[in-house]
Amino acid sequence: MAKQPNNQPVRRARSRPTKDAQLFLPELSPSMARWLSVVALLMVVGGGVLWFRAWISDPTHLAIQKVEWQGDFQYLKQAELEAIAQPFTQTNLYLLDTQGLEVALEGNSWVRGASLRKVWPNRLVVDIETQFPIAFWGDDKLLNQFGEIYAGTLPEKQGVFPIIYSPQTNGRVMGERYVQLTQMLSGLNLEIIELSEDERGSWRMKVRHGPEIIIGRKEQEKRVQRFRVGYLQGLKDRLGEIDQIDLRYTNGFAVEWKSGAGKSEAVSSLDRFAQQSLRS
To answer: Where does residue 110 rank: exposed (0-12), middle (13-18), buried (19+ CB within 10 A)?
Structure first.
C-alpha cells in the first residue's frame, strides 16, 4: 500500500550561536560619552528641581517659624507691625509675597522704609526705618529730619517741638529756613517755636515766651539782623510785654505792646526802637 505524502512543513532547527560568537555594540567616542553623561545628569537634576518646586509650593512645608524685627521703635509699636505682617507670613519663604509685605508695612505713616531678609529655611528678618520727627507740620502732620511731611500725631511733644507750616508743602525748604533763623538768633537765648509762610510767601515766627515776629517776603536776613540789634539794645528786657513785632520797614521795625504793658494801646507805627533807625 502506497504511503500518503506528508504535507506538513518541515521545521528546521534554529542555529544556536557558538561559544565564539560576540554581541556587537557600537563603540562610543569620548566626546559622545561625555555628552550623554551630561544629558543624563541634567535629566536627574531637572527632575529633582521639578519635584522640589512642587513640594515647596505647599505653604505648610518649611513654613515661617520666626519673624525678627529690627529698627528703632521709639514712636512706633511693634505689635502694630506684627498685625500687618501676620497674614503675609502664614506661608514659607519661597511663597512669601515680599513686595506686598513691604508695601503693607510702609502703609503705616510711621514707617519710612521696610526691607526683608530671608534666612533659610524658616526665618524672616524685617528691618524697619521709622520716621524721626523734628517738628509739627501745621495741626495734623509731622516733619522728619529729611524735610519729609507725613501724617501723625504726637501729643506728648506739644510745646516741645516747633510748629512749621507752608501751604506749598515744601517741608525741606521750611526746615532749612528754621535752621537758618535759629543760627541767626544764636546767643540771644531765643527759641523759635513757630515758623510759617503764607500764600504770598511772607514769613512769620514766634519765640517762646515772646511775641510773634512778622518778617515779610523780602530781605528776610537783613530784617532779622535788624531785630537782633534792637533786641540787644533793649528789647530783651521787655520782650514778654510785646505782643507783635513787625520787621517790614526800611530802617526799623514796629512794636505792638500787650495791653497794660506801659502802653495804653498797640503801636501801629515805629516805636522808639524803630525810631533809632536800626541798621543791619
So the answer is: buried
Q: Which of 195, 207, 190 is nearest to 170 (CA)?
A: 195
What's the sign of the alpha-carbon dihedral 37, 40, 45, 48?
negative
**Does the pTM of the predicted model rise above 0.85?**
no
What's the DSSP call for residue 5? P
Quote the Cα angle for 31-35-40, to 5°.
150
Look at the chain and count its residues: 280
Q: Sort strands 242-246 and 212-216 into parallel, antiparallel or unpaired.
A: parallel
Residue with cell 524735610: 147
Which 3 state secondary structure label does DSSP give 214? strand
Question: pLDDT for 240-270, tens place per residue?
Answer: 999 999 999 988 899 999 987 655 333 333 4
